Amino acid sequence: MTRPDSARALRAVLFDSGGVLMRPIGGRWNPRADFEETVLAHAPSVAPARLTAAIAAGDRFLAASSSTPDYDDYHRVVLRHLGVDPAPRLLADLRRDVPAPTYLETYPDVEVTLVELRRRGVRMAVVSDAWPDLPDLHHQLGIGRFFEAYAISAVLGCTKPDPRMYHQASTTLGLAPGQCLFVDDDPELVAAAIRLGYPGRTLCRDSAVPAVSAVPAVASLTQLLDLF
What was the pLDDT predicted at 4? Predict the structure, then answer.
């Protein structure tokens, strides 16, 4: 297992986004929180009871994709399971721009940690299975200014743990893997990064940090400051 030999060995942090930096207000990532309202405006007779199954179908579609698919393709899957015609106007309304703070929020420990990392000269990037608008969402939430690089699945055409996701971020920063700490809430993705030579930490905000684990873990982002 690769671990930082000293605080001086680390020069950057590569953050996952969802579950690490931000979360959906109300708890649901996809479809967006305004999905029901938008669909009912176009198809008032749709049966709300079908929504759970339709969302599950959308989740399966995302899970089966080798990369984050086009947002319209995702919506078509959910709409067809609802029995709603995925007409161009409806698809356009579902992907319309709405202010990120109306349905997303950062975790309480995020900004204070990012501010202190920047003060210490630590460089930062994001490695996320997400749609291409992620940098804009981060800017709207007030954290985009901290990140020099983004590795986004919908842009790269692959998802973690594909090595290209991790390497895109570290290469853009001009740093070696061993100089970049990778942080994710999925221990398997952290383990994959460690195998590639990246020091890693699993973020366990909502569960106890394992007493014994093959993958190092932290309970809060502020604990990362101990490594720099």
Answer: 44
